[in-house]
Specification:
CATH class: Mainly Alpha
Low-confidence stretches: 1-8, 470-489
Order of helices and strands: HHHHHHHHHHHHHHHHHHHHH
CATH topology: Growth Hormone, Chain: A
Number of strands: 0
CATH architecture: Up-down Bundle
Number of helices: 21
Mean pLDDT: 84
Shape: globular
Length: 489
């Protein structure tokens, strides 16, 4: 009976099951991309004559940036949920404030409702920002993990495109309903899958861990070997220590290289993510593209043009991140981004000084599209891929929360200050500032970031602990002995 049940389970490919497991998270992140991009169409429609209500410039900057403040609260909450409730239930609960936020946007009759709705969206996004890379990494096999983690970038790009398409062809209230529907489907899909095996192992639920792991990964020898390594690593971590205060515990954790090194790397990663203009461009895409095209292309058309380049590049990134080394993809993206930003700024400057004729005033659009390609290829997917891989299981919730704080703080700072920067320095000056900050982050990451492609999560943890691979022989021997007992060989 057990044998026939195992054969029946084997009929469904483990890759398909892993894809199903991450699909709920992917749909949530599509909704997050829509959250970020929605002000690009909402604010544009509310500026038109006959709009339901009108906003001041200060209202507009708060509506675009308040997600960042709400993200902080969500990210502070996320580690508690990840540690106490698990990845699955945390994913489910994060859908609820996001759905409520879109409902409030649909019903809004003034800026106050928009502020509250956007805050609820940001709170849910904050929880998910910490939860998504961890969940995807723990559901995925090492050989597929890069591609699955790259779907976060794909999801953001897809959500931004969808929000702008809906906002172009629909009234903003109807577009809000369409965008919010992704969270409802996400909630349904997340409810169909089991808890992640590493979380179950960390709680000592070994039998539940085995069932979840085998459902996701099958029952071949390689999968069994990785399962036993996972279970053994958690047995080794369960060392009884005297009770100390929480602050003493945090100080001890902060001194461990397997914690502070990944945290420092992710701080630079998420600062890079934001200062590259990742959230500024979608939030203010219509006025930015109007400036860059010299008003020679309709603002909605140019906005969708940028979204399509971002979307197509995100599709390519899903393949590239899984095929090439993480460092290679990241630094290719950084190089293209810096060159394209500086070239766009130079062409805008030359046009403003009348060195470019009216006939060719649209030329800054070309390096702008290369900029979208570069940042979407490397700067968008790699931080999320690394975030899901780099933290040890024991500190994954805490590390994700701290690094996520930098993501959300920089989100608010960069998006809130963008209108002021555009007014003070122009688009060209602001792009020069962004390119300089991208270069600074790139230099630090060049020396800090290790290669993680193809390594198991336990191998990455051993790297930061300073344990050479040859010292893992005892672990390998213990694993093989356990496998002989499990398989009867």
């Amino acid at each position: 009976m057990a044998m026939s049940e195992a054969k029946q389970n084997d009929r469904v490919s483990p890759v398909f099951k892993q894809l199903l497991a991450v699909s709920g998270v992917v749909l949530y992140m599509i909704g997050s991309g829509a959250n970020i991009a929605f002000p690009g169409v909402l604010l544009q429609q509310l500026r038109e004559p006959g709009a339901a209500f009108h906003l001041t410039p200060d209202h507009e900057s708060w509506i675009a940036s308040i997600l960042g403040l709400a993200l902080i609260l969500g990210i502070v909450t996320a580690p508690l949920g990840l540690q106490r409730l698990g990845r699955r239930l945390t994913n489910q609960l994060s859908c609820l404030p996001a759905l409520a936020g879109w409902a409030l946007l649909f019903c809004a009759k003034g800026p106050a409702a928009l502020f509250v709705g956007r805050s609820l969206q940001g709170f849910g996004m904050g929880i998910q920002a910490a939860c998504a890379p961890v969940s995807i990494a723990e559901y995925s096999a090492p050989k597929h993990r890069g591609a699955f983690l790259a779907t976060i970038a794909f999801s953001f790009a897809t959500g931004m495109l969808i929000a702008h398409v809906f906002g172009t062809i629909m009234y903003w209230r109807s577009a809000a309903v369409a965008c919010g529907s992704f969270y409802a489907v996400s909630l349904l899909l997340v409810s169909l899958i089991p808890e992640t095996p590493p979380y179950l192992a960390s709680k000592g639920l070994n039998e539940e861990c085995r069932r979840s792991f085998r459902w996701l990964r099958g029952n071949d020898l390689g999968a069994q070997k990785e399962l036993e390594v996972l279970l053994n690593s958690q047995k080794q971590n369960k060392v009884v220590t005297p009770k100390v205060s929480r602050w003493v515990t945090y100080i001890r954790i902060a001194k461990k290289p397997e914690f502070y090194k990944p945290t420092l790397i992710m701080m630079f990663m998420f600062v890079l993510f934001q200062v590259s203009g990742m959230t500024v461009i979608p939030s203010y895409s219509a006025p930015i593209m109007k400036e860059i095209t010299g008003n020679t292309i309709d603002s909605y058309t140019s906005m969708l043009m940028v979204d399509i380049v971002r979307f197509l590049t995100a599709v390519i990134a899903c393949v590239v991140v899984n095929k090439l080394y993480r460092r290679t993809v990241l630094f290719i993206g950084i190089t293209i981004t810096v060159i394209s930003l500086l070239l766009t700024a130079l062409l805008l400057y030359l046009r403003d000084k009348s060195y470019i004729s009216e006939k060719y005033k649209w030329t800054p659009t070309i390096p702008m599209l290369f900029y979208m390609f570069g940042k979407t290829l490397g700067i968008l997917p790699i931080p999320w891929a690394i975030a899901g891989e780099i933290f040890p299981l024991a500190y994954r919730s805490l590390g994700s929360g701290i690094s996520g704080m930098f993501l959300s703080t920089m989100f608010f700072v960069v998006v809130k200050t963008a209108p002021g920067c555009f007014n003070a320095f122009g688009v060209n000056g602001t792009f020069c500032i962004y390119s300089l900050l991208v270069m600074v982050c790139g230099v630090f990451l060049y020396y800090l970031l290790p290669e993680t492609k193809g390594k198991t999560l336990y191998e990455i943890e051993c790297h930061f602990r300073g344990i050479p691979e040859i010292k893992n022989d005892s672990c390998e021997q213990d694993t093989m002995l356990n496998l002989e007992v499990v398989t009867g060989r």
